[in-house]
Amino acid sequence: MRIRATVAAVSGALALSALAVPAAQAAPTSGTPYTLNVSFSNVTIAKAIKVGTTNKVSTTYSYTLTHGADVDITKSDFYTDAFLYKGSYDTETSELYGDNPATCTPTSSTTATCTGTVDIYPTDPDPKSADAGTWGVAAEAVAFNGQDQSNPDLSKVGYNDKGGLGSTLVQRYSKLTADAGPEPIAKGKTLTVTGKLSRANWDDNLYHGYTGQPVKLQFRKAGTSTYTTVKTVYTDSSGNLKTTTTANYDGYWRFSFAGTSTTPAVSATGDYVDVK
């Protein structure tokens, strides 16, 4: 559900077509919403949201809603939520909302803590792969005040929103593999390690190689718990990795990627090699 499902021009002013109004119902026909006496603060949300190719991903948010005595947040036709937007708030290119409005718990006569989720479906038109990276956080609230939500007198509907309340990374889920061989191998011989770094593509819902990225080759000696970086290798035009090293001890070999703003860090599962 979205509070700001559409924004349209009514009598030369911006007007609201609101949450919980099915698209088939009539658009608002009169008036302009007044500024609802609410404000938003103390927004918390995950620092990064990893989104794959098919599964819905939900991330929880919370914020403080402060409202005037003239606003009754317990009414059934009062709605509020937080959402994500790409670009500047006045000219955002994409928005991501939750399936449901936030739930607000009063903490005083004029404040409440509101919690909800942003629900991301990678198979929807938004987000697109090019949208990966930093998204802004905004919040909004609407009070219908008993108006027919299918065709309200907008002059009696209150609405307020605020952007720039925080930010989060919406990232393309990453995968990394590693395979070391031959195995077993004689001590001092050359070991070849191959792998692939790939990430979700939200345009075709497949995984594609992440090209030209620095990836660390790491080794963990058998009986220890810490990986040590041996060298840095770059992915090729298909996201593939291939390098050689010298086998001296039994242990695990892996690739490790530090991540970027669009793609989260990931480490391959270590591949054990027996050195004779």
Counting DSSP H or I runs of 4 or more residues, the number of helices is 0
Low-confidence stretches: 6-28
Helix content estimate: under 10%
Taking Cα atoms only, what radius of gyration do you get, to the nearest Å?
25 Å
Overall geometry:
elongated
Q: How many beta-strand elements?
A: 23
Secondary-structure-derived class: mainly beta
The overall pLDDT, averaged over residues, is: 91
Q: Sheet bearing the most strands, described?
A: 7 strands, mixed
Task: Give the helices and strands as they follow along the chain.
Answer: EEEEEEEEEEEEEEEEEEEEEEE
Distance between the termini: 62 Å
Strand content: over 45%
Structure in words:
The chain is mainly β. Helices cover 0% and strands 50% of the residues. The protein is built from no helices and 23 strands. It has strands spanning 6-10, 13-17, 34-35, 38-45, 48-51, 57-67, 78-86, 94-96, 103-106, 111-120, 133-143, 158-162, 167-172, 174-176, 179-181, 190-201, 206-209, 214-221, 228-234, 240-246, 251-257, 266-267, 271-273. Strands 3, 5, 7, 8, 11, 12 and 13 form a seven-stranded mixed beta sheet that branches. Strands 14, 15, 16, 17 and 20 form a five-stranded antiparallel beta sheet that branches. A hairpin with a 2-residue loop joins β1 and β2.
